[in-house]
């Protein structure tokens, strides 16, 4: 305790007031004395200056006298009062620089060095007022030039290393006191906005400013405190490059520094920039406002210096690219290219929307961002990066950084492999893909038990991993998946299976990175990893951090609860992004699963529930949905067919129901005009919803009603005949390939005019109705056409050309690897159509008839020919057909199947008819039973049929010659044999609406066989029943 604590409060307060008064009085006395001394020294300085100017006793041409004047000036200097005195002092120091510099070689060297540094910092402050018209910047600029030049010191001091250390200390001090800020303001105020680097020789001040910018960057600063050089590069970066570029910076400074003659220290700059960004990473957001400007500078200057970088420098360069690319804001051109599916087919008509160029001296972030992406895609940049990762000695870090760059381009900037030179160059390099996969396979992590486990195995288990591990593997995994899937486009089937390609003139080279055995193992790994990724993307529990643990976590550097949850969500999103085909959270997918749920409920589903919002999906359902949309091939085909049928059934319950009073569609169709009448009466205008139950009333060739009430069978027979008519090549809407497979006819527009798209829309609806009614129709479609229906984009690649025109495909393969002079083949960028006997020349690109095909452009020609035949020529046909199909059946449901499976879904499987299966699910009526003698004779006769005859029998009874996909247990109504009476003169007849065969009592096997064959060969149609 102090003595003060025993005093009364009043006395304590008095003592405090007295103490404070003393402090205030001391400050005021000190301030008054300083002002008095400033005035005294200022007067003394003025007297000496006047004496030196008037030729008095005080001589300015003396080192000690110069030191005295500088000491006085630095003591009293105030910029608003003494700037003219400072200018006068600069003028004399420049004039007598050698005398002043001599003080650095004596006992006063530290004082002299300090004075020079202070004078130069005042010079920087003075130049920051360069917008003041009354200020003459010539002398301050000359001061900067003289006292930072070796030529000023060497003639006096003679020791080159000592001179360098002096200049380094002076420059470092200036940097700390706004040197680059002063130069930045000078450049933007004294140089015209229209200046360009080519004007350097015509604008003297420009050259001086450029030299001053470069000078501090060339020293190593070994004589200065540690980190001095980093401070210099940081100041240069912050003042010149981290803010939106002015015209002077963009058109003059950056091109000047990018010129090899200026010798910019590019590699040290990259190292300093990387260190600067790593220090900022803890405080800055993911996308930095300074990133576009810095990235543009790095890429622009790098165009001249990439070839001079050491191997370590190239690795630093790769780190810088990866750092800034991830911080780069998404450009408008990128946001317009979403990954989501689009049915638009007018890609060729869409012009690329590029950000506008600089206007009114201002540069926009979108413009600079787009320029950065363009510069990153140049041939030089690509070659530099490729050389770094293609070499055998490429490090894991180089491959990881490259993968991260590719991952960022595709995920953040929505860029696709064919549009980026770097990505497609990597995709077509088999050695790189092989190296990348082996790196992925070899990546390991240490588990909590201490065991070392491959990261792929951890992913396959669906086990959570650290952020560090996921950051290592996700970019590599994403890049490999994207590049390898793209490379498969250009790999011929023979190359894929490792067989030699027998084409005359073709080189024996393979782009396939893996053998068939390796590919099998790789596919298994990818399959297991994808299933594990779904577990990671949809975890069983939502991780939470209890409140009482937050403080403990923070004490060891762990972020807060909300930040941790954001990190977890970002991590889950990164796993989801590994699937590139579709987005998991599109509304259509969730709508699909709502019907999946309804499918469990069955016919008891209440109509009151229709339209109600469904509850959120469980984790298990989220995973199942992800598998069905992303990895349907891991689910057996039969199971997917069951799921599809449940989805259809649930949808039918909403639309058709089981009640007798629900609306349906009733149409009258003339037998001889099935297509014409159906096209008119089932048009979208007349019947917008084809999901409703359709009842058909038929008129025969004489205009009379045909016998029979449509219980579903007449409609099925009608739909079968309608589809046969509509897809008949003689109708003109479809053509057949050499293998007899159907695809849209390019000449359809010439036949029916501009209404051709309506016909394809109608045919798409009719095929959709067949699928909706679980009806098999024997329509063999070309594989490329089915692919166009299923894809999120309706365009298909060159390999599908083999299913359209094998001859053209073979010729293009020949051209691809032709070793002779391609120009001698006499090709140009045109194709010739011969539709309906009329020859038409079509240019593949603008001016194509005048562009010869050469070795350099033949790949482009090959892809353009394939694109024209497969996509452009029938684009509107396919779009209309797909829209019609989607009007009845959700395309998301069909995308569970590939093109071959869809063909099976449409037409049934080309498998022999199983009589045992048919017998097991056949009903009998009218006195027949499985043990009846006539039935035993019937099955013996059918067993003796050929497969073709069995199909005709099946078609006779059910209207389709192929068995149901899941067996005859799925046939509804069940196959039934009814007693047709004892009249042996009658033929067997059928009621297709009931899948009913009316079989007279033929006990003689020969008679039954002849009568049955005659009936099924005649196939009289509806009226036979």
From TrEMBL:
<keyword id="KW-0832">Ubl conjugation</keyword>
<protein>
    <recommendedName>
        <fullName>Ubiquitin-protein ligase E3C</fullName>
        <ecNumber>2.3.2.26</ecNumber>
    </recommendedName>
</protein>
<dbReference type="GO" id="GO:0000209">
    <property type="term" value="P:protein polyubiquitination"/>
</dbReference>
<keyword id="KW-0833">Ubl conjugation pathway</keyword>
<keyword id="KW-0808">Transferase</keyword>
<dbReference type="GO" id="GO:0061630">
    <property type="term" value="F:ubiquitin protein ligase activity"/>
</dbReference>
<comment type="similarity">
    <text>Belongs to the UBE3C family.</text>
</comment>
<dbReference type="InterPro" id="IPR044611">
    <property type="entry name" value="E3A/B/C-like"/>
</dbReference>
<dbReference type="InterPro" id="IPR000048">
    <property type="entry name" value="IQ_motif_EF-hand-BS"/>
</dbReference>
<dbReference type="Pfam" id="PF00632">
    <property type="entry name" value="HECT"/>
</dbReference>
<comment type="subunit">
    <text>Interacts with 26S proteasomes. Interacts (via the HECT domain) with UBE2D1 and, less efficiently, with UBE2L3.</text>
</comment>
<dbReference type="InterPro" id="IPR000569">
    <property type="entry name" value="HECT_dom"/>
</dbReference>
<feature type="active site" description="Glycyl thioester intermediate">
    <location>
        <position position="993"/>
    </location>
</feature>
<comment type="pathway">
    <text>Protein modification; protein ubiquitination.</text>
</comment>
<keyword id="KW-1017">Isopeptide bond</keyword>
<feature type="region of interest" description="Disordered">
    <location>
        <begin position="331"/>
        <end position="362"/>
    </location>
</feature>
<dbReference type="InterPro" id="IPR035983">
    <property type="entry name" value="Hect_E3_ubiquitin_ligase"/>
</dbReference>
<feature type="domain" description="HECT">
    <location>
        <begin position="686"/>
        <end position="1025"/>
    </location>
</feature>
<dbReference type="Pfam" id="PF00612">
    <property type="entry name" value="IQ"/>
</dbReference>
């Amino acid at each position: 305790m102090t003595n003060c604590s025993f005093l009364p409060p009043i006395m304590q307060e008095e003592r405090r007031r007295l103490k404070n008064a003393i402090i205030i009085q001391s400050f005021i006395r000190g301030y008054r004395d300083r002002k008095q001394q400033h005035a005294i020294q200022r007067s003394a300085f003025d007297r000496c200056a006047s004496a030196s100017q008037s030729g008095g006793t005080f001589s300015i041409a003396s080192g000690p006298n110069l030191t005295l004047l500088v000491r006085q000036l630095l003591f009293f200097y105030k910029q608003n009062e003494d700037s003219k005195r400072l200018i006068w002092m600069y003028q004399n120091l420049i004039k007598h620089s050698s005398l002043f510099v001599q003080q650095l070689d004596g006992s006063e060297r530290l004082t002299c060095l300090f004075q020079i540094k202070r004078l130069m910092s005042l010079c920087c402050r003075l130049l920051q007022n360069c917008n003041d018209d009354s200020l003459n910047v010539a002398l301050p600029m000359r001061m900067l030039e003289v006292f930072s030049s070796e030529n000023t010191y060497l003639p006096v001091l003679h020791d080159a290393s000592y001179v360098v250390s002096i200049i380094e200390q002076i420059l470092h001090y200036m940097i700390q006191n706004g040197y680059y800020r002063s130069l930045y303001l000078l450049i933007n105020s004294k140089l015209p906005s229209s200046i360009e680097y080519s004007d350097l020789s015509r604008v003297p001040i420009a050259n001086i400013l450029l030299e001053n910018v470069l000078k501090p960057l060339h020293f190593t600063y070994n004589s200065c405190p540690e980190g001095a050089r980093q401070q210099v590069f940081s100041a240069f970066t912050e003042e010149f490059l981290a803010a939106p570029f002015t015209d002077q910076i963009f058109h003059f400074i950056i091109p000047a520094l990018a010129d090899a003659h200026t010798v910019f220290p590019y590699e040290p700059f990259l190292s300093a920039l990387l260190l600067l960004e790593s220090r900022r990473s803890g405080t800055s957001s993911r996308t930095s406002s300074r990133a576009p400007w810095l990235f543009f500078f790095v890429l622009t200057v790098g165009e001249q210096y990439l070839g001079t970088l050491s191997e370590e420098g190239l690795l630093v360069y790769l780190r810088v690219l990866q750092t800034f690319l991830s911080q780069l804001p998404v450009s408008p051109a990128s946001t317009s290219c979403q990954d989501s599916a689009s049915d638009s087919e007018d890609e060729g008509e869409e012009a690329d929307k590029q950000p506008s160029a600089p206007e009114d001296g201002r540069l926009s972030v979108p413009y600079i961002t787009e320029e950065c992406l363009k510069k990153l895609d140049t041939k030089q940049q690509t070659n530099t990066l490729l050389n770094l990762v293609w070499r055998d000695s490429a490090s894991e870090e180089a491959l990881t950084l490259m993968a991260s760059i590719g991952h960022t381009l595709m995920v953040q900037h929505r860029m696709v492999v064919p549009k980026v030179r770097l990505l497609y160059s990597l995709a077509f390099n088999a050695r790189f893909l092989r190296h990348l996969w082996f790196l992925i396979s070899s990546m390991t992590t240490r588990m909590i038990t201490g065991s070392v486990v491959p990261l792929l195995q951890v992913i396959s288990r669906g086990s959570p991993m650290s952020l560090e591990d996921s950051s290592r593997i996700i970019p590599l995994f994403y890049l490999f998946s994207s590049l390898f899937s793209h490379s498969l486009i250009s790999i011929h089937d023979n190359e894929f299976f490792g067989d030699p390609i027998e084409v005359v003139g073709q080189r024996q080279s393979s782009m396939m990175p893996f053998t068939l055995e390796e590919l099998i193992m790789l596919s298994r790994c990818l399959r297991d990893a994808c299933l594990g990724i779904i577990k990671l993307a949809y975890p069983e529990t939502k991780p939470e951090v209890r409140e009482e643990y937050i403080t403990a976590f923070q004490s060891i550097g762990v972020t807060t609860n909300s930040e941790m949850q954001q990190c977890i969500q970002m991590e889950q999103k990164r796993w989801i992004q590994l699937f590139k085909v579709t987005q998991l959270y599109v509304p259509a997918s969730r709508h699909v699963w709502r019907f999946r749920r309804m499918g469990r409920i069955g016919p008891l589903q209440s109509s009151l529930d229709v339209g109600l919002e469904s509850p959120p999906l469980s984790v298990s359902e989220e995973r199942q949905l992800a598998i069905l949309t992303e990895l349907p091939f891991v689910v057996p085909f039969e199971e997917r067919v069951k799921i599809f049928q449940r989805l259809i059934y649930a949808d039918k319950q909403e639309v058709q129901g089981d009640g007798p009073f629900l609306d349906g569609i009733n149409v009258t169709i003339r037998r001889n005009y099935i297509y014409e009448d159906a096209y008119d009466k089932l048009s979208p205008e007349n019947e917008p919803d084809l999901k409703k139950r359709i009842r058909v009333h038929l008129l025969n060739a004489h205009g009379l009603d045909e016998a029979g009430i449509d219980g579903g069978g007449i409609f099925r027979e009608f739909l079968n005949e309608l589809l046969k008519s509509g897809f008949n090549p003689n109708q003109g809407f479809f053509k057949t390939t050499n293998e007899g497979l159907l695809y849209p006819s390019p000449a359809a527009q010439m036949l029916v005019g501009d209404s051709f798209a309506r016909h394809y829309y109608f045919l798409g609806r009719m095929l959709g109705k067949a699928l909706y009614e679980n009806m098999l129709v024997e329509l063999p479609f070309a594989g490329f056409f089915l692919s166009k229906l299923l894809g999120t984009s309706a365009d298909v690649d060159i390999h599908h050309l083999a299913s359209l025109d094998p001859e053209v495909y073979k010729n293009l393969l020949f051209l691809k690897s032709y070793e002779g002079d391609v120009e001698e083949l006499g090709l140009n960028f045109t194709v010739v159509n011969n539709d309906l006997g009329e020859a038409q020349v079509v240019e593949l690109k603008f001016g194509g008839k005048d562009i010869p095909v050469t070795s350099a452009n033949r790949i482009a020609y090959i892809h353009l020919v394939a694109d024209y035949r497969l996509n452009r020529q029938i684009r509107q046909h396919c779009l209309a057909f797909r829209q019609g199909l989607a009007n009845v059946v959700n395309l998301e449901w069909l995308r569970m199947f590939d093109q071959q499976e869809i063909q099976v879904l449409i037409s049934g499987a080309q498998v022999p008819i199983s009589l045992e299966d048919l017998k097991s699910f056949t009903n009998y009526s009218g006195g027949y039973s499985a043990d009846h003698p006539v039935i035993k004779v019937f099955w013996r006769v059918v067993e003796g049929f050929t497969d073709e005859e069995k199909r005709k029998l099946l078609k006779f009874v059910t209207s389709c010659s192929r068995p149901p996909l899941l067996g005859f247990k799925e046939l509804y109504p069940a196959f039934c044999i009814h007693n047709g009476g004892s009249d042996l003169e009658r033929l067997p007849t059928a009621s297709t609406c009931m899948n009913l065969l009316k079989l007279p009592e033929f006990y003689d096997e020969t008679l039954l066989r002849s009568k049955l064959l005659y009936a099924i060969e005649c196939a009289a149609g509806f009226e036979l029943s």
